[in-house]
């Protein structure tokens, strides 16, 4: 499997075990229930938009907000912005226009929360709860960010029900996916110190898996030192 630099990287059995442990930790395993609004977090993964539509069709929220501008990794894929493309995808899937709101400016998860709250308020919606839909390995950090920025609202998280191996196959780059898992976990651990998120308890085995993978070169998404 080629890594971000186009070189081959064989993933060992232990590395897969560590990655699967972190993958599972990233997911909040929330029991889904009806919420005031759904919020789909923009990214490179159009599956987030598709899953948001699936949850809407299940009656879990009456209105959705797609939030996200552009980043260096999404500009080529979504030139008009992540949220705009997500909205277009939802409309193609048959969601009525009045059920889809767009927040096209956010550049990080904190702004996803702040700006989505503003868009909902402008639409006359003051939610008691939000169902945040994101990539599978971003559930925990998204939850921690929304609870920090928007503490008065109940936050439920969801992502596509897919395993690590299938997700990596879909991306086409297992090494890069594990890099992203490792980088996301580092942010779960480090961002509370910077005031970006609420603290999350990280089990010792998950922290040990993180260190092994980071030390083994799964480090392209780590925070700069």
UniProtKB/TrEMBL annotation:
Source superkingdom: Bacteria
Matches recorded under InterPro entries: Cell_Envelope_Assoc, DUF218, Rossmann-like_a/b/a_fold
Any one Pfam family match given in the protein's UniProt record, by short name: DUF218
Domain DUF218, first and last residues per copy: 49-155
Protein name listed in UniProt: YdcF family protein
Organism of derivation: Streptomyces griseoaurantiacus
UniProt lineage: Bacteria, Bacillati, Actinomycetota, Actinomycetes, Kitasatosporales
